[in-house]
Amino acid sequence: MKLLTHNMLTSHVKGVTKGYPLLIKATEVKVNEVDFNPQFVSRMIPKLEWSALVQAADELGHRQDLPVELVPEYEKNEEFLKKVHRVLLEVEVIEGCLRCPESGREFPISRGIPNMLLNDDEV
Amino acid sequence: MNMMEEAASQLERDHVHSVYDKIAPYFNDSRYKAWPKVQQFLLNLQPGSIVADIGCGNGKYLHINKEVFKMGCDVCRPLVDFAWSQGHEVQMCDGLHLPYRDGCFDALLSIAVIHHLSTKERRIRAIKEMARTLRVGGRIMIYVWAMEQKRRKFEKQDIFVPWNPNPQSPTDREPAKPRKRATAQSVSEAIDNADKHRKVRSTSSVADEEELTCTTPQQSTQRLWFFSRSLDSVFDFGSLSISRSSSRDLSTLSSPTGENERNKSSHWGRGRGLIKQVSSFFSPTSVIGSEEDVFDSVTNLHKGQNAPGGNNNSPENQSVSVSLAQECGSLALPDLVPFQKEHLKQSSDESEGGLQGKEQHESTKSSQGSERQVEGSCLRYYHVFREGELAELIENHVDELLVKHTYFDHANWCVVAEKVQICKI
């Protein structure tokens, strides 16, 4: 699971109103090399919940110096875009779980795949 | 969860989820090609878009268009594992409860998925759920099997289609894409199986259509399917009507309307027992005996289908399983089963008690032996769509989507719809 994906994921347990962002507990993290496409990254940024990304990167120990707030005119800031690229697309959770911040319900991640299936009593 | 929900859930577990779990290894080789129009939809997206394929299966659309970020989800673990092995971002989830925040996607795909949902309400919910995750202005492309196929028309809309892992005529066969990352054991197995089953056709819509319209004699028994009533009609207690038929077995399971009225209120209190009966009856494997019986009875069924009135008068040497298989074709009777149980309890001189007992026994037996061979017992449930049905469903029930295009593509009805802002006054 990449952090770009994580940024879209939310807890959907019945009754939960604040299920985002999911807290990450990772037992295995990989960092891959992914081709850097600055326009791609630049276009992704407005679609992100920025603070959730920073928090997730922090939880994985891969935040490095990613800023709490978006830098102005990031579109032209290649250094910044590279940092974002790394965190969004290169860091990957292979094993661990995602925890609902409200209910505490844990969704396992195994072999890189989050299992977001709910039980009958959670729908 | 109410009774209908439970029955629908159970039906989909038995005749969608568990079947795909079993047949997943067969999918992993030749379905490399995407539907051209779906491919075009993806290629036309703005660079930097985020797209989700809801019900992505083995991820065959997830490699298209490097300029957009794609993710997929499915309930079938083996298929999702395979998609991951190809380098895609995928999750396990269920289309009625998507784990994505509101409005986070620029586009969505739902290709040959919602026809596996067994009630109209669930199909609407699935579309609404997807609409929720779509941003305003974003677009969704939905493909569902058409009732009106090129060379044949399904006679009913709710069907069980047997899985045929060994089709006669080979079609396109691309080699498996090289694995993009290290695989876990189960995925390697899946790929090994794929290599072994290289001749096997997977079940994209094209393959399915050919499967269904193939006319080689050897395949004629294998291309048959069971018709069924929809779960919607089954649970429509308000307008309950009992079909009269000359079939011996049908009459044993019917009860007069008066009984229904009296029983109606007590049924809402029924729990698991009823659902088990309904679901087990719905499961064709529970009413058919051995694999040989499937094809014998299906052949009879096929002949019977074209007979006037569609009734199958059973020959005298009927075993329970074969006659019940014939019922499966004319009418599945879950609406009558619960009433019959009540009826049985109340009436002391129930001569058909023996039949019911045996049917129960058959059900229990086969549900325990459900890990039989893949070939014989994999029946997938489909609700095939009439022309205009999908568009109507959206127009009438999903205010947040505006239908932009509808068309027929090979064996599918297709809709492209756009998420619109709903103004609440």
From TrEMBL, chain A:
One Gene Ontology cellular component term attached to this UniProt record is: perinuclear region of cytoplasm
State the UniProt keywords alphabetically. Cytoplasm, Nucleus
User: Which InterPro entries does the protein's record reference?
Assistant: Trm112 (IPR039127), Trm112-like (IPR005651)
Checking Pfam families in the record gives: Trm112p (PF03966)
Where in or outside the cell is it found? Answer: Cytoplasm, Perinuclear region; Nucleus, Nucleoplasm
Biological processes annotated in GO: rRNA (guanine-N7)-methylation; tRNA methylation
The GO molecular function terms of this record are: protein heterodimerization activity
Similarity comment text for this entry: Belongs to the TRM112 family.
Q: What protein does this entry describe?
A: Multifunctional methyltransferase subunit TRM112-like protein
Q: From what organism does this protein derive?
A: Champsocephalus esox
UniProtKB/TrEMBL annotation, chain B:
- What Gene Ontology biological process does one annotation of this record name? methylation
Family matches, as InterPro entries: AlkB_tRNA_MeTrf/Diox, Methyltransf_11, SAM-dependent_MTases_sf
Q: State the Gene Ontology terms under molecular function.
A: tRNA methyltransferase activity
Keyword annotations: Methyltransferase, Transferase
Domain Methyltransferase type, residue spans: 53-142
The protein's matches in Pfam families, at most eight in alphabetical order, are given as: Methyltransf_11 (PF08241)
Give the compositionally biased regions (Low complexity).
246-255
Q: What is this protein called?
A: Methyltransferase type 11 domain-containing protein
- Region Disordered, as annotated, extends over 158-215, 246-270, 300-321, 343-371
Identify the PANTHER family for this entry. Answer: ALKYLATED DNA REPAIR PROTEIN ALKB HOMOLOG 8, TRNA METHYLTRANSFERASE 9-LIKE PROTEIN-RELATED
